[in-house]
């Protein structure tokens, strides 16, 4: 039924203007806005919809992952742009906030609405 449908993902935020600044300026994504909705244009041609929600509750899971070639460089650049990396109980991260305990190297951060994002080293 949907094998020819170009599906896309979306998530909510509580402040579209703050999200537009964060995703466009801080993360450097191409962002467009139409009818009060944001579209994040990411590599690979799949767009992501960001919509306002008055009773927004931040995602408590990683809802968007950004694979990078060099996680240390990516983390350092994001810190320079004001991003703060999260630390979670039971996951021992290094001084940069990078978890090296199995699986891909990964570091988590949040957007202004509190949604969890990550950078992870592309193996």
TrEMBL record:
Residue ranges annotated for the VOC domain, each copy included: 5-122
SUPFAM superfamilies found in the cross-reference section: Glyoxalase/Bleomycin resistance protein/Dihydroxybiphenyl dioxygenase
Pfam families: Glyoxalase
Protein name, per record: VOC domain-containing protein
């Amino acid at each position: 039924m949907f094998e020819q449908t170009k599906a896309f993902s979306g998530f909510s935020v509580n402040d579209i203007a703050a999200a537009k600044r964060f995703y466009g300026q801080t993360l450097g994504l191409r962002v467009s806005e139409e009818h009060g909705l944001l579209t994040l244009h990411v590599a690979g041609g799949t767009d992501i919809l960001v919509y306002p929600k008055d009773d927004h509750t931040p995602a408590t899971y990683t809802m968007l992952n950004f694979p990078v070639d060099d996680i240390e460089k990516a983390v350092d650049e994001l810190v320079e742009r004001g991003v703060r990396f999260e630390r979670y109980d039971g996951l021992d991260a290094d001084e940069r906030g990078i978890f090296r305990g199995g699986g891909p190297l990964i570091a988590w951060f949040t957007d202004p609405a509190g949604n969890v994002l990550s950078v992870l080293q592309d193996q």
